[in-house]
Amino acid sequence: MGASPARAATAGVGVTLAAALQRRRRRTAFVFGLLMLIVAATSVLSLGLGAVPIPPGRTLAALWTSVTGLPVDADAARDSLVILNIRLPRTLLGLIVGATLAVSGALMQGLFRNPLADPGLVGVSSGAALAAATVIVLGERLLPYLPFAVLPFAALPIAAFFGGLLFTSVLYGLSSGSGRTSIATLLLAGVALGAMAGAITGLLTFMSNDQQLRDLTFWSLGSLGGATWTKVATILPAFIPMAIALSFLGRSLNALSLGEAEAFHLGLPVERIKRIVIVVVALAVGAAVAAAGVIGFVGIVVPHLLRLAIGANHKVLLPASALLGAALLLGSDILARLIVAPAELPIGILTAAIGAPFFLWLLLARRRMVT
Amino acid sequence: MIPLVEARGIGFATRRTTILDDISLVLPPGRITVVLGPNGAGKSTLLRLLVGELAPTSGSIAYSGVPLRDLPHWQLAAKRAVLPQSGTLAFPFTVYEVVALGLDGAGSPVAGRSAQARIATALEQADVAHLAERQFPTLSGGEQQRVQFARVLCQLAAGRIHEPRQVLFLDEPVSGLDLEHQIAVLETARRLATEGAAVFAILHDLNLAAAYADELIVLKSGRQVAHGPPAEVLTDRLLAETFGVRLAIRAIPAAPMPFVLPQARQSAP
């Protein structure tokens, strides 16, 4: 549009543009540095805090000696025993689950082009919850009939994982026809299936005895307690696809933000990308729910905060979400351990207590922006 | 010369209704083809078929002789760009980021300094360089449309590395723009055509269509009712039969360019 007088200022605009880009890059680098620092700090705290408090210096020393295998005194040996066998798996689980929930939230929001979307919406959480409740309440009765011997400790994660995957597959099947996926149908069918799963879970709750009820409650409120190396190793493979997807989905989600037709015009294989996102999220969230129970709101809060800080570009939003999600969940876990020590608060209570008001504020802020 | 795009007898029907029936057209390089027609005539469906977004239920479409369905997404993205009617964004992308999306799709993405230069040029051409750091959702409708236009120009600039024969599709490109920018968008389209691109635009303004089209296609109820240069197509009879209005077409004395004024209603025969 050569007619505009802005053309005369071309050189000037180019310079300010370059400067603005430079500023933005610096800001993003600063936020990333800060996030990594927070993750490192919460990790050290998480390793040190508990029934046997270990100061950060000794925590790091214990980690170092266990890596190098240097001989140590009795105190240090006890430290590393506690850290390696109890707190390290718990901390790793917290980091992985937190990162997964936040990244899944960012992925779902990108896919649905809606900042209020959440993994819970595509049925992953409700499917996983239903399967886990089934195992808790009916597990002892069902176990003898299973064709293979399921290890008792692995039954819950495996069931939750397949429950999440099954629900997501059914939803995906319902909402896609003739090679296209209707996002609106997917959301509404997700609500319907979620309600159905809720009803059946409620029925199972009604049928359960006291011990089962305790298990159900504890699990449905979410907890990182009971993390073991076996548990971490069991669910780890489910997170690998998401970690790989992080590297190439950013660009696609940016284009998808414009709309599905526009993303197609830009040359993206839209249907394939939608399928990849849904499967990757189903896998990772199914595994996260299986390992730590239902933990809400991390997926909504984290990407939103980051969009305020570094903008909407998914290429930086996705990895930043992984970092902040990991730090946020680990921080919540530390609080959950400290508030009512020596008992532990279920972590889902904390994330919901922080997340729900935040969600309401988000809704109101959006409404103000629209009107 | 092989036309950039050739459609032969294309139609689109759902189980209940036929939306488009037996349309044939060619988009030759260097020419602007404008589609006119009342609401619901099938203009947007025609555009969606031509860009590959929908598959025709009958007939065939080819880009430079290659069947459209045989072209992978990324190759198609180098050959054609599409300006949508209106786009919303739920996330606070900056204008610069939105325009940069034009670089991403077509094959090997452009990176580094040459990417920055292409984005800057596109921002200039659509007169939105001063908005580069603004967040897209905070812009006015017309500004958003110009940013989308910059993105489309950016896509064409990036695609030109792989593919010199390009088509620009515009779906009501001037509907939300002020007069200055309406003319500027169409002038840019004209310049791209002069440089060898084919342009396909849906317009509602008969006078802009008459002024910029080399070729007019008029649709009514999914059928092509007229086809040819503006001076031949725009007649009093066409307006009456297609748009249901009795208006008189006049011609600018010096040039063979038809125009129509709504005020001419009373003097129509």
From TrEMBL, chain A:
Residue spans crossing the bilayer: 29-54, 88-108, 120-139, 145-174, 186-208, 228-249, 276-302, 347-365
GO molecular-function terms, A-Z: transmembrane transporter activity
Signal peptide location: none
Keyword Secreted tagged: no
Keyword vocabulary terms for this entry: Cell membrane, Membrane, Transmembrane, Transmembrane helix, Transport
Example GO BP: siderophore-iron import into cell
InterPro entries: ABC_BtuC-like, ABC_transptr_permease_BtuC
Subcellular location: Cell membrane
Gene3D superfamilies: ABC transporter involved in vitamin B12 uptake, BtuC (1.10.3470.10)
Keyword Acetylation annotated: no
Gene Ontology cellular-component annotations: plasma membrane
Membrane topology: Multi-pass membrane protein
Broad class of where this protein is predominantly found: membrane
Pfam families (alphabetical): FecCD (PF01032)
Entry similarity comment: Belongs to the binding-protein-dependent transport system permease family. FecCD subfamily.
Protein name as annotated: Iron complex transport system permease protein
Origin species: Chelatococcus asaccharovorans
Organism lineage: Bacteria, Pseudomonadati, Pseudomonadota, Alphaproteobacteria, Hyphomicrobiales
UniProtKB/TrEMBL annotation, chain B:
InterPro entries linked: AAA+_ATPase, ABC_transporter-like_ATP-bd, ABC_transporter-like_CS, P-loop_NTPase
Family: Belongs to the ABC transporter superfamily.
Protein name: Iron complex transport system ATP-binding protein
Family matches, as CDD domains: ABC_Iron-Siderophores_B12_Hemin
SMART domains recorded: AAA
PANTHER family: HEMIN IMPORT ATP-BINDING PROTEIN HMUV (PTHR42794:SF1)
KW Transport (keyword) present: yes
Domain ABC transporter: from-to ranges: 5-246
Coiled-coil spans in chain: none
Top-level taxon: Bacteria
Record function comment: Part of the ABC transporter complex HmuTUV involved in hemin import. Responsible for energy coupling to the transport system.
Keywords: ATP-binding, Nucleotide-binding, Translocase, Transport
